């Protein structure tokens, strides 16, 4: 694939390097000459000096034959414009934007960006997985279906402990899929399984029903 | 009529003071408090420190009740992003913005934004005046 990367900072450089090693053709567009020199010394002639938000720069980069454009500068507005220029002017099939302000995720999607990577949320998710005080952990968002995949750890005081799955008051559309228990193989979450302390449950739930799911399993 | 202006540079401040003098309800945003020195002493509108590309700041500025939004910061991309948020997320009826870069202005005009490029307008003005005097 031919992939254009906007921004030759740390993210752009390491991303470019990784894509190259996977055999992709890449071009990194960067404004600062000094960064271009640094990257070229390591990766060879894969850089273009210029403003990646400009139509003329993207034309020089051959954006019209690019399979994907990834914009990873530190400024959300620059990433938005770079992706929109690629999408609407050069018909690039896939555009990916890095986002710093988590609120912009929904906004960018409504403005037509295909995929957004929100570094703040990625770090938050890691913290939630590491720190046991969070009962519910996000695993994945299925945007097109409006569903979240979450992991729930059942604490000792949860009201679902000792009850069968079919007797729980789960939110509409919410499905418990797998249960992981200490020293056991993962179990399918069938209706007659009784919830135990320490169970780790993988569930699919419609976006915005996480709180209800939490209440159904844990109580207030 | 409530109008929200993003960017209190010379253009933003001038526009704000003109509309304010005519009795419109103006909120002007800038990331730098020092920019508000450009507003006249008798300015009756609201001057708010904040980034207009941030939806929370825009809400504070009353964008949900605004009849018009004007983006005139120095950054084309900031103007483009804020204008799109105002138009597509907050459904502000009238949205205007400045885009210096003529090519970007053309693209976003095609995408439905009411964008003005001072570069094109001023060059045209100069050309018209030059040729008029030359004859």
Can you walk me through this structure?
- The complex is a heterodimer of chains A (220) and B (135).
- Chain A is an alpha/beta fold and 220 residues long.
- Chain A has two domains: 2-118, NAD(P)-binding Rossmann-like Domain (Rossmann fold); 132-218, Alpha-Beta Plaits (2-Layer Sandwich), CATH 3.30.70.
- Chain A is built from seven helices and eleven strands.
- Chain A has helices at 10-21, 33-43, 55-60, 76-89, 104-110, 119-130, 210-218, and strands at 2-6, 25-30, 47-49, 68-71, 94-99, 115-118, 136-142, 147-153, 175-180, 187-188, 200-206.
- In chain A, the strands form two sheets. A six-stranded parallel β-sheet of chain A has the order 3-2-1-4-5-6, sandwiched between helices. A five-stranded antiparallel β-sheet of chain A has the order 7-8-11-9-10.
- The longest helix of chain A has 14 residues, at 76-89.
- Chain A starts with a strand and ends with a helix.
- Chain B is an alpha/beta fold and 135 residues long.
- Chain B has one domain (2-134): NAD(P)-binding Rossmann-like Domain (Rossmann fold), CATH 3.40.50.
- Chain B has a six-stranded parallel β-sheet with strand order 3-2-1-4-5-6, sandwiched between helices.
- The longest helix of chain B has 17 residues, at 118-134.
- The mean pLDDT of chain B is 95.
- The chains are: A alpha/beta (220), B alpha/beta (135).
- The A-B interface holds A 53-56, 75-78, 80-81, 84-85, 88-89, 101, 103-104, 107, 110-111 and B 53-56, 75-78, 80-81, 84-85, 88-89, 101, 103-104, 107, 110-111.
